[in-house]
Amino acid sequence: MNWLEQLRADMARNKMADVPADSVIVDVRSPGEFQMGHVQGALLLPLSDLMGGAALPVEDKDTPIVVYCASGGRSSMAQALLAQMGYSRVTNGGSPQEVAAVFNKPLVAG
């Protein structure tokens, strides 16, 4: 990990210091992006599907959820949509690399 990646990882850890380790991790990128590499254990729910009315497979709306995309833009929109749906503990994790660093999980393809 180079110094810039380390700095980003440290900033992500600080940003998500209060996020529980058992949070549900949701990738809101496209299926193709997900296949190229995602945080191990992440659920795929593309932002376009969420905007089209797809439901998040999490019944308890107080469950901690972390959403991420390529850079944080789409996950910011997903965070707002999920809040409108009544989810009370949604965090924008930013990128897959940031979320992987915070949760100490690998990025996996497929």
TrEMBL record:
Q: Which GO terms describe its molecular function?
A: transferase activity
Classification via Pfam families: Rhodanese
Q: Which UniProt keywords apply?
A: Transferase
Q: Which PANTHER family match?
A: RHODANESE-LIKE DOMAIN-CONTAINING PROTEIN 15, CHLOROPLASTIC
Name of the molecule in the record: Rhodanese-related sulfurtransferase
Cited CDD domains:
RHOD
Q: For the Rhodanese domain, which residue ranges apply?
A: 19-98
Source organism superkingdom: Bacteria
Q: Lineage from the top down?
A: Bacteria, Pseudomonadati, Pseudomonadota, Betaproteobacteria, Burkholderiales
